[in-house]
# Entry
Amino acid sequence: MRKIEIATSATIYKDIFELSSGDAMLMKKAIEARKTAYAPYSKFHVGAALLLENGEIILGNNQESAAYPSGMCAERVAVWKAGSSFPKVKIHALAISASSLIATVDKPVGPCGACRQTLSEYEINQKTPFKVIFMGEIGEIVVTESLLSLLPFSFDNSYL
Ligand code: THU
# Structure
């Protein structure tokens, strides 16, 4: 047997003012997107903003359903919008922000496991990593240089 270590790294920023101007602009778009989330059940509002290499910014937010599992996360709403409108255009960066009507979200909210899986396929297909920038409503912001760095031992189409 052998043990391995998988290293990943992230940069933590203390707030939006510490981000580069490009990252701050994208995060502001995610914050705006969050405000029109349809989340009457969880009251947890998530916004996602994707910057594409052609300069387009694609927004998404979570959309819930009275049949709870039928809802969808902000990140997948955004990436599927991008994939359907701009199928061959690479993603440069993804920003995510979350807030709640129940309590202040003061920790960074990363994409859920299902979103990581979905997003990873876009990163693999485009053969270029994209930056992921995420925060709650207030507090620190995490920046990673790739989606796959958030998903070690991931499943992909090479297994099929
Ligand atoms: N949610 C997202 O939109 N993105 C995530 O990465 C985590 C969770 C949404 C799904 C659901 O509408 C609400 O947040 C509570 O889980």
Q: What stands out?
A: The chain has a mean pLDDT of 98.
